[in-house]
């Protein structure tokens, strides 16, 4: 394969997770009698620009379709994060009713609703009809397209040149990352700012977060790789913040390379130095994930088998994409994990791809009082354990599998 960033031949493997269906391809009951599409899930590293990337087996239009099931607003902690982001950006960059804010991958309007509440004109780009409709129901202006240079040029002609562009957890999701970033250079005003948030590759490696690898994530990003990508596409990084979201993320601030330049924060060079120091530009850095993933798989299977042998009931919480990667890699089915509860009604009544474990409403927890609840979106453990604190009243215990099998 050739690198989707720089075009160089890619030879360095990161991990081979076998085959699985796309992680958000939830099944309705009628589909249980049909075959699923299982495709390889392999991730490799470009040794020229150090972009970590999946091999191409699926198209974006197949992954982000009209029935896309991920809705951001069902996480209270993520809503709080979005509201705090808007307040911070308004204060830092002096946004007002004369400004223009554009969010790429606006999902169900989880973030732009807070922009609109301040009377700031805003526009969302969201290719999935299910979430776009939810955002429109909030009164937001949403364009149902995939973003790139051509779409950006059309928006400029409409008068949507942006003072702020937000892109949360989408940079990793685009197959043509150069066209995507080039769209930001086109749509930003000369003095405009764009922010990208994405899980940090260093945390992924340090915490063995192999379950965040799935077909929707075409890229896994270090600041080193993102800086090269931005430079190639007319953008310049001027600040970076480290965030706790999604198990450890970066928020990168960029501006047009040909526009009104802000001074570069020392945080940028400091983090690049940290990445260089741990070996991001060396093949050895990438050799630890595969054995860690195998160890986690065996720990999970041992726990589930021991629980079943002891007559204990184990269920899951959170029908997250990362959970599907974990369950399919480990070969877990409903005989070991009876069902998974999820607060998102768009997932309830469906079945997880691959494992075909049923997804139910959270109320099922109190009805059946299981012995163990495996929290699949481990990054939301605090939120889930607070919302479902009643589990402890009957002696139930929470469990996470990543980075190590832990019974809480």
Question: What is the structure about, briefly put?
Answer:
Helices cover 32% and strands 21% of the residues. The protein is an alpha/beta fold and 408 residues long. It has a seven-stranded mixed β-sheet. Strands 14-13-12-15-16-17 form a six-stranded mixed β-sheet. Strands 1-2-3-9 form a four-stranded antiparallel β-sheet.
Description:
It is a single chain. The protein has 408 residues and is α/β, with parallel strands linked by helices. It folds into 3 domains: 1-64 and 153-287, Rossmann fold (3-Layer(aba) Sandwich), CATH 3.40.50; 80-145, Rossmann fold, CATH 3.40.50; 289-407, Rossmann fold. The protein has helices spanning 60-63, 76-93, 112-117, 129-136, 149-157, 177-187, 201-206, 223-232, 266-278, 289-309, 321-330, 363-368, 381-387, and strands at 12-20, 39-45, 52-54, 101-104, 122-125, 142-143, 162-168, 188-199, 219-220, 235-243, 249-256, 314-317, 340-341, 359-360, 372-375, 397-400, 406-407. It has a 7-stranded mixed sheet. Strand 5, helix 4 and strand 6 (142-143) form a beta-alpha-beta unit. It is globular, with a radius of gyration of 21 Å. The termini are far apart.
